[in-house]
Design brief:
single chain, 196 residues, mainly beta, Lipocalin, ten-stranded antiparallel sheet, 2 helices, 10 strands
Length: 196
């Protein structure tokens, strides 16, 4: 019996132990997408809320993947007040821009993640807006930290809105706009809090 016990113990030590990936679900109340859109003169900024999302870490605690859905109807402006704020939000949600009634969800899905430094990753992801996914992935660096089983992450990124058929005020498609030109590049800073 002792021989079988020793052999069983030795066999158990010899077998590889496969750790599992850990999926973190984002807290939609504590996570946010900050946006900035610029004109030739001036700029506007605001926020968008997540509908849902996950980040996956491997057995080493390193970022492996991620997928998010953003509620476009939650688009809010932060730098204006009153009537001007309402007009801008309404215009951004209209057919001129993001057409949120027809396209209420935008999404981001990681296709490549590479470790650059401790807690910092080079990410490539498919971005879908107005039902259109860009032919080339968007690229950005994401910083991830886990403390007491709570994951926090931050990622600045930007994209060309015209790729997603958001052309209003673009100098690429309209002439003689003067100082009313709206720049094509939109800047985002994604901030997430997530738990297993």
């Amino acid at each position: 019996m002792r021989l079988f016990s020793v052999l069983g113990f030795a066999l158990a030590l010899a077998l590889p132990v496969f750790a599992k990936d850990v999926v973190y679900k984002i807290d939609t109340k504590k996570s946010v997408v900050n946006w900035t859109g610029s004109k030739l003169v001036g700029k506007h900024n605001g926020t968008l809320n997540f509908k849902e999302g996950t980040l996956t870490l491997n057995e080493k605690g390193e970022l492996k993947g991620g997928e998010f859905q953003v509620d476009m109807k939650s688009l809010t402006n932060k730098d204006l007040d009153g009537e001007m704020k309402g007009k801008l939000e309404g215009h951004l949600k209209s057919e001129d821009f993001f057409s949120v009634e027809k396209n209420p969800i935008s999404s981001l899905k990681f296709v490549s993640v590479k470790l650059k430094a401790k807690g910092v990753y080079a990410v490539e992801a498919n971005l879908t807006i107005k039902g259109k996914t860009s032919p080339e992935p968007v690229k950005f660096d994401a910083t991830i930290e886990v403390k007491n089983k709570i994951l926090t992450g931050k990622a600045p990124m930007n994209f060309d809105r015209t790729v997603y058929d958001v052309r209003y005020g673009s100098g690429k498609f309209f002439e003689n706009l003067g100082d009313k030109v709206i720049k094509d590049n939109i800047e985002l800073t994604v901030e997430v809090v997530a738990v297993p």
